[in-house]
Amino acid sequence: MAQTSQNKKDLAQARTKTNFDVTDMTNYLYGGPANVEQRRYIIDLIAREPIFNKDDWPWLNHTDAVKRGIAMSTRLAEIKMEHELNDLDFATMVEAIDDTLPILLHNGAFIPVINSQGSDEQIEKWIPLAEKYQIIGCYAQTELGHGSNLSQLETTATFVQETDEWEINSTTFTAAKWWIGGLGAICTHAVVQAKLIIAGKDYGAHVFVVPIRSLDNHKPFPGIQVGDIGPKAYGGFNKMENGFARFNKYRIPRENMLMRFSKVSRDGVYTKPPHAKLSYGSMVLLRSVLIRQMALYLSRATTISTRYLTVRRQFNNPTKRNDTDINPGLETQVINYPMVQNRLFPMIAQSYALFAAGSVMMEMYIGLMTGLSSGNIDTLAEVHATSSALKSYCTTIAAAGAEECRKLMGGHGYSYFTGLAHMFASIVPSNTYEGDNYVLTQQMARYLLKEVKTARTTPNKVTPYSKYVLLALNRDSFAHARCSVAKAEDWLNPDVQLAVFEHRCARLATELSDAVDAAGGMESTTWSDHNIECYRISHAHAQYVMVLWFIQSIREARNPEADEECRASPEAIAILERLSNLHALHTIQTNLADFTEDAYFNPSQCQSLRAQVKSLVASIADQAVGLVDAFDHPDFLLASALGASDGDAYQRLWDKAQTEPLNRREVCDGYEEYIRPLLKKHGELKL
Ligand SMILES: Cc1cc2nc3c(=O)[nH]c(=O)nc-3n(C[C@H](O)[C@H](O)[C@H](O)COP(=O)(O)OP(=O)(O)OC[C@H]3O[C@@H](n4cnc5c(N)ncnc54)[C@H](O)[C@@H]3O)c2cc1C
After folding, report:
1. Given 3-state DSSP classes, what are the helix, strand and coil percentages for the chain, each rounded to the nearest 5?
2. Which one in 19, 27, 470, 592 has a CA-CA gap of 20 to 30 Å to 10?
3. In what residue span(s) does the Acyl-CoA oxidase/dehydrogenase middle domain sit (predicted)?
4. Ligand 1 centre from 435 Cα, in Å?
């Protein structure tokens, strides 16, 4: 009991050290008090509904979990309609529920795809039905044999002119749609990617709205074999019925092909889209949403770790921040060890940077869609490439970060009751879906290769975030460029930091361009040989824009002329600047070879960089608990015995263990059957 109250005291004591207004910081993160209030209101709405209670989740098998997932899905839909909630509110409900539900792809992909690729008449027909959940949809692209390589999908949609229909066919065994969220049980319709064939000619993959199950009795229509693909890794996506489907010459009307961009007329004439990438809008949306989701995930993981490590005590080793002078009988709080701080605090900084990246990426998406609606495709390529690069980088660091947070918490970190195990299982596949994180980096690389060429021919046409390619135009001076840092404080100058990231991107892009040109160009058969460099430049670019956007968001928060919602107090700005410095410099330190291999950094700069990172990490220590409190994740959302807001970690962990069903019996099930026969094999024993 004494230990328990010490836990609470430790967290409360840590909070007293916070020297900025936590509410002010929360407002900065979520874009103003109105957004914060709305998020709290929505999370509370979910927390009050018994169907969303998380207590028995670890003991549900896949079959029971899917049924629960369906029940949760339908309640989610009802709440959305009852309260007339918008898409952002829906996303917050999903965040609060904290599990992937069968209905998620309905709002997350089915509706956005129809909205972005359907004609006005198609939107008018399908969207009202979908918004009232009179139909429930999913997004079926991936097949058993192909996912990344969209051009080789084997499902066909063949135009049957006599009846004005498409015949959807899984031409081979490997053409079966696979992994499709919502297809296994809940959906009535799917938007299906299939190769469009007219009079024997293949026009490539297009999107079709395909009825899957009867609206009367939910039975699959004849000609469709549909089911669930089974349990998934780490027990993740347990409530989601990712499904398969095979089509056997299944007919749908011609108007079920989504025809905003490409069209097929009654007499079978195909009109191609005015721009090959016009259909990318919905993909950009999904990737932009993912970036914000990663901010929420990593900030939750760091909240749990920071709070637990503040109350966890091990050894009596003195550290600079040891509080044993006040409490001589106590061991050291684990969070005081520099090694722990060095692992944890850069991830807090990364979480803040992810929030900024999520906001800017969403603004870019909205700008893109506004442009597209008036036929302006100027930003399409850049926004698409940026969202691909960031999706790959942000989901990579969030998954790695969640696992690091688990390790930071030692043995108890491996308990389900941390709230991290479930979260980790949910984050990990984000590295694969919406584009495999390695394959996806080729998008940004291809884009930058074009930018390098543009820089040489029409430099004024280089797009804003790749302007750095201009730095390398003069090969000779670029080869001799050196980092300007002369003394350790110079590292804290945001302009110096940005120059460093720009130099690295310019070099990697130019080197890749030279290598690709020497090997015969982007379309040559040797393109795959450059995959490793594509990954490198894509992640370098993502790191650059993340550093840039975090710096810009702080500048905005400091600007007295900016909107009130964007501004923050001087105390909050001061700590944000420290976080931004830590984020930028720690990212450089983690990738140091990239900055030294062309002698851009010299050895003494490397040393002063490390010293600066160490000092920044230490400077965060007193603010860590306040910084994670500012993420504003309530206990319901964290669902964590170790990371709850009162710090009562041991008591909560104890209480949770008592709920384990095994503990309902004094003698375990299996004693008579297995244990007793073994113990008695050699006769009765009296000791
Ligand atoms: C949880 C989950 C949910 C999903 N939900 C849906 C859904 O609702 N709808 C849907 O349509 N799909 C869904 N998917 C499928 C998902 O989008 C694909 O699995 C994903 O895009 C990866 O494609 P793939 O499976 O073909 O991987 P592959 O391309 O087969 O990748 C296998 C390996 O090969 C590597 N590789 C492949 N090509 C290259 C290359 N050119 N160069 C270098 N390396 C390469 C990859 O990096 C990877 O390591 C889901 C997947 C998961 C895991």
Report:
1. 60, 10, 30
2. 27
3. 138-232
4. 6
- d(Cα 154, Cα 424) in Å, to the nearest integer? 33
Q: Report the residue among 155, 428, 434, 439 best suited for mutation to probe ligand 1: largest number of ligand atoms under 8 A from its CB.
A: 439
Whether residue 634 contacts residue 26, with contact meaning beta carbons closer than 8 Å, is answered with: no
Domain membership of residue 271 as a residue range: 136-280
CA 316 to CA 328: how far, in whole Å? 9
Residues 599, 461 share a domain? yes
Report, in angstroms and rounded to the nearest whole number, the Rg of the chain calculated over CA atoms.
27
How many domains does the chain divide into?
2
Q: Which residues form the pocket of ligand 1, taking CB atoms under 6 Å from any ligand atom?
A: 105, 139-142, 146-148, 179-181, 237, 242, 429, 432-433, 435-436, 438-439, 528, 531
Residue 1: per-residue pLDDT:
46
- Active site includes 434? yes
Average pLDDT for consecutive 10-residue bins of the chain (687 residues)?
A: 77 96 96 96 97 96 97 97 94 95 96 94 98 98 94 96 98 96 98 97 96 98 98 95 98 97 96 81 88 98 98 84 68 94 98 98 93 86 96 98 98 97 96 96 97 96 96 96 97 98 98 95 87 97 98 93 83 97 98 97 98 97 98 98 98 97 95 97 91
CA 8 to CA 644: how far, in whole Å? 10
Q: What is the pLDDT of residue 324?
A: 58
Whole-number Å distance, alpha carbon 339 to ligand 1 midpoint, is: 36
Contact assessment for residue 545 and residue 390, using Cβ atoms and an 8 Å cutoff: yes
* Distance from the alpha carbon of residue 320 to the mean position of ligand 1, in angstroms: 48
The reply to whether 188 falls in a domain is yes
C-alpha 393 – ligand 1 centre gap (Å): 16
Kindly state whether residues 167 and 270 are assigned to the same domain. Answer: yes
| Helix (H), strand (E) at residue 159 | strand 155-160
The DSSP-derived string for 372-418 is: HHTT--TTHHHHHHHHHHHHHHHHHHHHHHHHHHHHHTGGGGGSGGG
Q: Are 459 and 313 part of one and the same domain?
A: yes
Per the residue annotation, which of 165, 434, 451, 502 is the catalytic one?
A: 434
pLDDT at 545: 98
Do 541 and 402 fall within a single domain?
yes
For residues 476 and 202, what is the distance between their CA atoms, to the nearest angstrom? 49
Residue 482 sits in the same domain as residue 624: yes
Task: Say if residue 405 is in the same domain as residue 450.
Answer: yes
**270-271/263-264 β-pairing:** antiparallel
Residue finishing a domain among 280, 315, 345: 280
Residue 329 CA to residue 325 CA, distance in Å, equals 9
Q: Whose CA is nearest to atom 41 of ligand 1?
A: 439
Would 236 be classed as within a structural domain?
Answer: yes
Inter-residue long-range contacts of 676-681, CB under 8 Å, 24+ positions, other chains counted: none
Residues in CB range of 107: below 8 A, 6 or more apart: 87, 90
Q: Is 657 within the bounds of a domain? A: no
The reported pLDDT for the residue numbered 4 is 63
216: domain CATH number is: 2.40.110.10
pLDDT at 42: 97
Report the distance separating Cα 638 and Cα 308, nearest Å: 12
Residue 679 lies in a domain: no
d(CA 227, CA 179): 10
Residue type, 529: D
How far from chain centre, in Å, is Cα 216?
Answer: 37
